[in-house]
Design brief:
Blueprint (H helix, E strand, L loop, with lengths): L6 H20 L5 E9 L8 E7 L2 E2 L29 E3 L2 E6 L2 E8 L7 E7 L5 E7 L10 E8 L8 H10 L4 E8 L4 E2 L11 E3 L2 E12 L3 E6 L14 H10 L3 E4 L8 H9 L6 E5 L11 H8 L5 E4 L25 E5 L6 H9 L3 E4 L3 E8 L10 E4 L5 E8 L9 E6 L2 E7 L9 E8 L6 E8 L5 E4 L2 E5 L10 H18 L15 H21 L2
Parallel strand pairs: 1-8, 9-10, 10-13, 15-16, 16-17, 21-28
Antiparallel strand pairs: 1-5, 2-3, 2-4, 2-6, 6-7, 9-18, 10-11, 12-13, 13-14, 14-15, 18-19, 19-27, 20-22, 22-25, 23-24, 23-26, 26-27, 26-28
Helix pairs in contact: 4-7, 7-8
Amino acid sequence: MRPLLSFYDFLFLSLFLAIGPQVAQSQPARPGLLTVTILDAATRKPTPVRVRLTRDGKPVAALPPEAVAVMYGLWDHEDGYAFQPDSSFYVAGQFKMTLPPGTYQLSVSKGHEFLRQQVDVVIRPGQPLSQTYTLQRWTHMADKSWYSTDGHIHIRRSPHENPLLMTWLQAEDVNVGALLRMGDFWETYYPQYAYGEAGLYGQGNYLLTTGQEDPRTPELGHAFAIGALDRVRQRDRYYLFDEVFDKVHQRGGMTGYAHQAETFHGYRGLVLDGLRGKVDALELLQFCVDEHPLHTEHYYHLLDLGIPLTATAGSDFPWCGQDHGHGPPERSSRIGNARFYTRLNGPLTFANWRNAVRAGHTFVSSGPMLDLRVNAAGRQPAIPGDRLAVTRGSSLTLTVEAYGHAGQVPLDTLELVSHGQVIGRTTARQPGQSAAHLSLTVTIPSVDYGRWIAARCTGGPSQAAHTTPVYVTVDGRGFHNPQTAGHYLDLSERYLQEIEQEISRPNPATERQAWRYADALKARIAETRRVIERMRQELR
């Protein structure tokens, strides 16, 4: 009778029983298909969003085919494409990814006004997973006629990129994106195919427009222009910023100094050109200097001298921000992390937007929202940028509301500021106040001299906001601060002396060319000194 198992069969079976389970365990588990849809709670339709997917704190290296990609990078190099600097990516509302089994962390966001969502996603071997997430707004500023702008974005653009960049803009809920051609003494970067009306691209309440950050110098700072019908560049007269500003104004645009005038000695150019009436705006809020986005020293300098200056803000993408992926999202290098809001009369059009920015109806924000109104008896309330003319002895009522969200934009402090001094203050810890809403009313019973009045607010980590002032004049006089004017004029003189030191002799550094324009700059310094002397007489 033949045995049931031969010696060789028995040996094979023994080996299989011994190593078979190990072989089975060594086979990789089948991946699962993740399908994600993100809806806007108001429309119940898919909406463009920013997505970040991590596992055990590390970004997932794969990208879904739906990721919207545009080439970008420092110095116009190809440093990035579909991934953002913090390893996130943009989609138009839906995406699919095949992922190994495991637990993933999914973060979905849409700018300042929507509530972020962070969830765990568990992928099981070979099993599909379909998830739908709905993003809720905690505020809707456009419904209140306040439209957001990122006034400082560096990405080269042709008509082909328009719909792709529009998705990026919508994913950050930025209503207006200003793409700036950048220049220096030697070269230009991030070219734009057209300017003015020809360079516009719009979808609904979202608009792409063009501008420039040029001239840019280490001795006088970085200048920007938005809203002009064409670019302006003078390579052979590069350090004469005022000539560029004049031509930008002739072409319907607005000029300003970037980076709060903090870096690249921008305060020198701001004084040289601002005291002579060439500057319209200051980029007051940005994450280029440090993690605190709001710096007001140079802003208050010009305001206290009676020079109106519109507050703007911009991300300076992809240059500014922290991209480790662990800090507050508003600090990462991302479009719209610093923005300004503009109060429009009527729908969002290029003309309406440009007119409102020119009028100074703005506040800057990295999260909190502000509503400032200044009332005089029998007058319509004045909003940021307005000039309010009253007679001596008039009373003023100042009202400001700050809005945030206790979880995402927790408010801390709200202040009313006049001539650089806090004249009213409240915090979320006081009775009747909260992390979601702060309010403050101050009455000035009798106004004896002109003044500028602004509101500012701080929130969670790196969250701040500041309005353009309301400019109050009394009996036809200015709004300068007579108590600080002398100090700021002395400081202006010191900045002019710094420029004189820069141009006193040739500089071997290739990026420092101001000395080549010594004669022309000396003439402008002399003109500014005449303005300073006149102001010393007038601003007492």
